[in-house]
Write a structure and sequence with these properties.
Fumarase C, Chain B, domain 1; Ribonucleotide Reductase Protein R1, domain 1; 3 domains; two-stranded antiparallel sheet
């Protein structure tokens, strides 16, 4: 358990106490369904509901002897219920209880993750709208490309996080299946109607075909959705780390009073939260890969997946929940330096307008290949000499022979370059359709 990053909500969900609570509910509901069908005495189901209880320490004590968690739990329940306990777990196998309860537990964790993801979406949206018009240079291959806005950069991440929410919702749906189908999935010892009604009362769906276990592709899909959300957070974190570099310094993580950046260098302000989030995303990808390894089991069931899932599901839930809350904190407190963004843009002396000039030349009848060569020739002068692109273009006879000065000037219109940013915001935020 990654206890350092554990939240109270996730700790409660993945506690032994909560796991046994869900187990008790599953066993009790099966008995109530059977009583309603006349298969066991009605008073027995009432007694099981009223007296059914457990003591976590006692369950673990019994398990230490019998080396079987479900038997230990049922033994402890029987100590509370008395003779009516003979109807508990009747016709069921361990995985009917384990996998059905596990689905409920995973969905509880997913609901907490969903709430935190929406909070992060809200934080990113607010900062994106704040900086919709904050102009900065866009980079490809780490090299200045064309102007963009910091808000648009954030809106791209908002869109990815929204897709993550869609995937999480789909994964929550896919994991929400249970079974009461017996030792090899043939529903040999209870009527299929018991399974169907039990799942309805528990808020799950019936796994249409299972073995002794719910098939693990469902679990792999859930952890894959979790890992992809983590990958988007990592994408954001890597960008923040790059933009905080001293030679860029366009944004900066909040640096608290009394915070220290280095044990040796008092001047340091490091992007430690972003770096931590980058590393934690690697954990999530590892958990997703491990979940995929769990899909292939021997015949109708082995337990090679079981020990793994006791680690990867609680840990992945804790890790992503921490990542979501920390990234929301980071985004809300992120320090943005528009003046530095402007200064960095000026370093290339207008070269980011090379494409509008290229297009203007082709509109004037110049072949693309020739126009590209002319503009590139001028751009290389900018790289090598202390002049702007506009100056270089104005001194090139081929270009001035085709484009008037006023047309060239229009190629350097920043507002025209960014005129569609509001449209991108509008069509992206239209996708905000969750409840």
């Amino acid at each position: 358990m990654i206890s350092r990053y554990a939240s109270p909500a996730m700790t409660a969900i993945w506690s032994d106490e909560n796991r046994f609570r869900i187990w008790k509910e599953v066993e009790t509901v099966v008995c109530e369904v059977r009583a309603d069908r006349g298969e066991i005495p009605a008073e027995a189901a009432v007694e099981i509901r009223a007296k059914g209880a457990f003591e976590t320490a006692r369950v673990l004590e019994i398990e230490n002897t019998v080396q079987h968690d479900v038997i230990a739990f049922l033994t402890n329940m029987a100590e509370y219920i008395g003779p009516a306990s003979r109807f508990v777990h009747q016709g069921m196998t361990s995985s009917d209880l384990l996998d059905t309860a596990f689905a409920l537990q995973i969905r509880e964790a997913g609901a907490v993750l969903r709430e935190s993801l929406i909070d992060l979406l809200d934080a990113v949206e607010a900062r994106a709208l704040e900086h919709q018009g904050t102009v900065m240079i866009g980079r490809s291959h780490g090299i200045h490309a064309e102007p963009t806005t910091f808000g648009l950069k954030l809106m791209v991440y908002w869109s990815a996080l929204r897709r993550g929410l869609t995937r999480l919702d789909a994964a929550q749906e896919e994991i929400g299946y249970g079974q009461i189908s017996g030792a090899v999935g043939t529903i040999a010892h209870l009527d299929p109607a018991v399974e169907a009604e039990t799942m309805t009362r528990l808020g799950l769906k019936v796994a249409e075909a299972s073995t002794q276990v719910i098939q693990r592709d469902r679990h792999a899909a859930w952890l894959s959705a979790v890992a992809l959300i983590g990958a988007t957070i990592e994408q954001m974190a890597v960008e923040i780390r790059n933009l905080q570099r001293t030679d860029v310094h366009e944004v900066e993580e909040s640096f608290g009073k009394g915070q220290k950046g280095s044990s040796a260098m008092p001047h340091k302000k490091n992007p430690i939260v972003s770096e931590k989030l980058t590393g934690m995303a690697r954990l999530l990808r590892g958990y997703a890969h491990t979940a995929m390894e769990n899909v292939a089991l021997w015949h109708e069931r082995d337990i090679s997946h079981s020990s793994v899932e006791r680690i990867i599901f609680p840990d992945a839930s804790h890790v992503l929940h921490h990542m979501l809350t920390k990234m929301a904190w980071l985004i809300r407190g992120l320090v943005v330096y528009p003046d530095n963004m402007q200064r960095n843009m000026e370093k290339v002396r207008g070269m980011y307008f090379s494409q509008p000039v290229l297009l203007a030349l082709t509109d004037a009848g110049v072949s693309r290949e020739e126009a590209y060569a002319w503009v590139q020739r001028c751009a290389m002068r900018v790289w090598d000499e202390d002049i702007s692109l506009r100056e270089a273009l104005g001194e090139d006879a081929d270009i001035t022979g085709r484009l008037e000065g006023a047309i060239l000037d229009r190629c350097f219109d920043l507002d025209h370059q960014l005129r569609n940013v509001p449209l991108i915001f509008k069509r992206t935020l239209q996708l905000k359709n969750w409840e």
